Amino acid sequence: MNRPAPLALHVNGVTHLVSAAVDTPLLYLLRNDLALNGPKFGCGLGECGACTVLLDGMPTRSCVTTAKVALGREITTLEGLGTRVALHPVQQAFIEEQAAQCGYCLNGMIMTAKALLDRDPHPSVETIRRELSRNLCRCGTHVEIVRAVQRAAELLAEQNSVREGVRA
Ligand code: FES
Ligand code: FES
Fold this sequence. Notes:
single chain, Ubiquitin-like (UB roll), DNA polymerase, domain 1, five-stranded mixed beta sheet, globular
C-alpha cells in the first residue's frame, strides 16, 4: 500500500482534495471522504455494476478503479445528474416506470443508461439490454428497467425539442 498523499479529484464539476494512497479504490474515496453515496458497494470485484460512475463520460466500476486512474479526469456520480427538485430525465424515467424493488442496483443502471443515451439517443431494446447486461439486478426488475431507459430516451427527446423551440 502506498503512503497517503494529497490528491485532487474532479467530481461533478468540483475539485476536491483528499489525502489517500494512490491505489485506494475510487469508490472508497467517493463514499467515505466525499460522502457521495450514490455509488454502492456490491461485490467489490468489478462484477455487479452497483458502484458505477462515469469517468470522462464512460461507465466505470469505481470499486476496481484506483484513485491514480481517476486523477485528472472528470468523475460524474449519481449526485451529479440531477437534484431533488430538478431530476435528470433518466432519474425521472426510472421513477415514472417504477423500475426498482430494493433499488441497490439503480445507481449502476442509471449511470450506465445515461452514458448509453449520451452516445445513442434512440437505442433499440436489444441495445439497451446489451448495454445493461453486465449490471446485475438481484430483484429481477429488468423489464421495468428497460422500459425506463426507453422512457428516458423520450423525455430527453422532448427536452431537446423544447430547447430547440426556445432557440428558434
Ligand atoms: S461493487 Fe463494483 S462492480 Fe460490484
Ligand atoms: S432493484 Fe434490487 S437489485 Fe435491482
